[in-house]
Design a protein that fits this description.
Layout lengths: L17 E2 L4 E9 L3 E7 L5 E8 L6 H7 L8 E6 L3 E7 L4 E2 H7 L5 H20 L2 E2 L8 E3 L8 E3 L6 E2 L10
Antiparallel strand pairs: 1-2, 2-3, 3-4, 4-6, 5-6, 7-9, 8-11, 9-10
Amino acid sequence: LVSGGDTSTDDKMGGGARLAAGRYEVVSVLGESNCTVYHARDTATGADVAIKAVPRSKQTREAEALRELRHPHIVHLLDERCTASHTLVVQERCAGGELLRSVAKAQAYSELRAAQAAARVAQAIAFMHARGWAHRDVKPENLLLRTARDPSSVVLVDFGLAARVPPPPRADAA
């Protein structure tokens, strides 16, 4: 996982550690559960990214789903790298944080804003279903904001449980 041939993730990587042959520099750990998500910087472009390090023993279809699901309200896949022990799923960094935290911190959150956020999530889910994918883990923690300044920038993240499903029948097929 770390450049120089070392693929260990047993130790927490601090700021400055390099991922994927030096292409990404770790800034901090964003979160941990079944995998670790890092805030990193792309050394080629200077862009901030999020890197989900998925152990090879827990392979998912996350990168496959994100490659196929380009939508304004689904997190964008930027790169995918494999090491001996992990798959690195490089995604856009959603600097606005969790939608739920944004709502909780707001002094007022109108019904209109809530309806707009719900509509965006519903659009993303309908898009996925129409292309034969189910997220299977939609919950408040998996709804992030691209930017803190734009409460309408909600995106669906964490496709670790995503699975292919048959597309819904067409309405005119009856």
